[in-house]
Design a protein that fits this description.
Blueprint (H helix, E strand, L loop, with lengths): L4 H41 L8 H4 L7 E5 L5 E5 L14 H11 L11 H14 L9 H9 L7 H17 L2 H11 L9 H9 L8 H9 L13 H17 L5 H8 L15 H15 L5 E6 L3 H18 L7 E7 L5 E5 L24 H10 L7 E4 L18 E4 H6 L3 H11 L1 H11 L20 H12 L3 E2 L5 E6 L4 E4 L6 E2 L3 H17 L13 E6 L5 E7 L4 E7 L14 H13 L18 H19 L14
Helix pairs in contact: 3-9, 3-10, 5-6, 5-7, 9-10, 10-11, 13-20, 14-16, 14-17, 14-19
Length: 651
């Protein structure tokens, strides 16, 4: 056969073309496959959350929550989910950790985040049953689901769950993952984490959980609502016993121990009932967020509130208002109490927080009426007047202003002590004119009044609006012999891991008025309760100082007073500023105040109030003055008005 080079060349070209074709086809196929794989990966994982560091995982996607405790560490209130304090594995009994491992992931320390064997076992069980009877998720996967992913059951979410689980297993140790899981798992009843659940169901710390209790809590992640022991004791007991059996299978406990635990009845505590602390909690939470700033989702806030005294305040307000309020056309009240360090130990901002969240102790600005006279007299004493000084209760005009006494009577010459005790408006107005409006404003501001005070002579009768908390704080200065301390409600703030973020440190004492002035005012305030308009606030042998206040047309009624231990204030009125039926500060407010103080001072020793000397008059002069006052009052009742010449009588 004749050799033909042209045919060989043709064949070679055809082979090269064929190879190029198939190589191109393979390249196109690989490229298409790569693109498809990239697109598939992107679709499944492009929105995959990043795994933060270990510290951030404790708070990631955590709904803000605040737990409020009293000075003894007992919970007063909870806002948002309840997380409890972070608990380390070392602080937990072994049977607590073992119960959760047996119930949820007995191969936890053997897999790398995804347990193929468990998945295969669950698939076989579910196919055999024709329904879902078993899950294959590891503890790591459950943690990922709780921290990062939605609850939807899709292939995409399951793949993301597996991918994140593998990443977390590379980033954290097994103990770190298990601790996170136990502190963040939802266990029903608004409780997240083992410590929160231990408190909710058993009123104890997680470190004190018994084996049966631990098994019960370990049963809950499977179906917290369905297995809620507060709703279905039988379902919870059955699942608890399953957990105990699994602990036996895992070698954590013996069959005998499990059998004994199964016979233990489930004893739950009732849901905690808190005082009506909504008003105090609102105030404290807003202040706490100001202090710590953003970025701390959950706080443990120690309040200065005393649980027993808070309940006493609520009972005093609500019982008195239910008895006396309707007939008096009085629909609202507020009450606040401060201890000797000016900690807020009780606060009632209204009759029902559920119906109205408006805090009438802090946010309501109302006219204090005669309750402001305390500030007026203090300014006068600072300028040299004394309790025994005499002024004339008479028809008084100051320019076009005509201040009148309650009832319209005048009794002539009186000591300032008597004028204050009887709450004589004419004398207070005269004093206000003598010392000047600026002196009254200055004294109010030094005592802690932050509401604007109008520098007018009429301020002497309390026409500028203030709130109950600041006025009560101002009165506490007299009990403290002139030292002012800012009222406060937060003692400390911690995060859920126990780290202290803030501790209240009392500022150095500020002497805003001389002790002599404070003592003279305390003397006058005592006279109100012993012989004046505040008699209903008397606590018998216990020394009390206080002042009544009633605004124009009976729109507001106040009583602010103190013992050697507690300063407290009560306000009664209507939110729409409508008049009450002749309610004065010496009536309903004084009754509320007294009810609270009687309860607050049960078994407390009698302690005297710091006062200056009594009336600086001889016994003879005191007797004569009392006679003149009685005669003047008798003349007033028959229509006699003291002559203007008496206006010059002073001491």
């Amino acid at each position: 056969m004749t050799f033909r080079a042209d045919l060989l060349a043709l064949k070679d070209r055809l082979m090269r073309r064929s190879r190029a074709f198939w190589l191109g086809a393979a390249g196109l196929t690989l490229g298409a496959g790569f693109i498809a794989a990239s697109m598939t990966y992107s679709w499944f994982f492009s929105d995959l959350p990043k795994v933060p560091d270990a510290a951030a995982l404790w708070v990631v996607n955590r709904e803000p929550a605040s737990t409020f405790i009293d000075r003894d560490g007992k919970v007063l209130a909870v806002r948002g989910p309840r997380y409890g304090e972070a608990v380390s594995l070392n602080a937990l009994p072994a049977h607590v950790v073992q119960a959760f491992l047996a119930a949820e992931d007995k191969r936890f320390f053997e897999h790398s985040g995804v347990d193929q064997a468990a998945i295969a076992r669950a698939a076989a069980a579910n196919i055999g049953a024709g329904r879902t009877v078993q899950g294959g998720s590891t503890i790591t996967q459950q943690l990922v689901k709780n921290l990062f992913l939605s609850p939807e059951q899709t292939i995409k979410r399951k793949l993301q769950e597996a991918m994140l689980s593998l990443r977390i297993e590379k980033q954290l140790t097994k103990d770190e993952i298990l601790a996170l899981y136990l502190n963040r798992i939802f266990l029903g009843q608004n409780s997240y984490g083992i410590d929160a659940a231990a408190h909710r169901y058993f009123s104890k710390h997680a470190s004190d959980l018994t084996l049966p209790e631990a098994a019960l809590l370990a049963a809950l992640p499977k179906a917290p609502s369905q297995l809620d022991p507060t709703k279905s004791n039988d379902n919870a007991r059955a699942r608890r016993n399953v957990v105990l059996d699994r602990m036996v299978e895992a070698g954590f406990i013996t069959p005998q121990v499990a059998a004994s635990a199964k016979t233990t009845p489930i004893v739950l505590v009732s849901p905690e009932t808190y005082p009506d602390l909504g008003y105090a909690v609102d105030m404290a939470e807003a202040r706490a967020r100001e202090i710590v700033g953003p970025g701390v989702p959950d706080l443990v806030i120690e309040l200065t509130i005393d649980r027993k005294l808070q309940e006493a305040a609520e009972n005093a307000v609500k019982s008195t208002m239910s008895e006396r309020g309707p007939d008096a056309d009085a629909s609202q009240a507020g009450f606040v109490a401060l201890d000797s360090g000016n900690q807020i130990i009780a606060m009632v901002g209204g009759l029902s927080y559920a119906q109205s969240q408006f805090n009438r102790t802090r946010d309501a600005k109302r006219q204090p009426g005669s309750a402001f006279k305390t500030i007026v007299y203090a300014a006068a004493f600072e300028q040299g007047l004394r309790p025994a000084a005499v002024r004339v209760d008479r028809d008084t005009w100051i320019g076009n202003w005509h201040p009148e006494n309650f009832g319209g009577d005048h009794i002539g010459p009186v000591t300032l002590t008597t004028a204050f005790a009887k709450s004589l408006n004419t004398v207070a107005a005269q004093i206000g004119q003598e010392i000047g409006p600026r002196a009254m404003v200055n004294m109010g501001e030094r005592l802690g009044i932050r509401s604007p005070l109008e520098p007018n002579v009429s301020l002497s009768l309390g026409v500028s609006e203030v709130n109950l908390l600041e006025l009560t704080g101002a009165y506490s200065v007299f009990r403290a012999e002139g030292v002012r301390r800012e009222p406060y409600i937060i003692a400390s703030i911690k995060d859920s891991k126990g780290k202290t973020l803030y501790t209240h440190v009392a500022a150095s004492d500020t002497q805003v008025i001389e002790p002599r002035v404070a003592q003279d005012m305390t003397l006058l305030l005592q006279s109100v309760v012993t012989a004046g308009t505040g008699r209903r606030a008397s606590l018998g042998e216990r020394e009390v100082g206080g002042k009544t206040g009633t605004s124009q047309n009976f729109r507001d009624a106040w009583f602010i007073g103190f013992t050697a231990d507690i300063t407290a204030g009560a306000w009664v009125g209507n939110d729409d500023d409508s008049p009450m039926k002749r309610v004065t500060g010496g009536a309903i407010p004084a009754e509320i105040w007294k009810k609270f103080m009687e309860k607050a001072h049960e078994d407390a020793p009698l302690r005297p109030l710091p006062t200056g000397p009594r009336l600086e008059l001889s016994p003879k002069d005191q007797a004569l003055l009392a006679l003149y006052e009685d005669l003047a009052l008798a003349f007033a009742r028959v229509g006699y008005t003291p002559s203007s010449e008496l206006a010059s009588v002073q001491r």
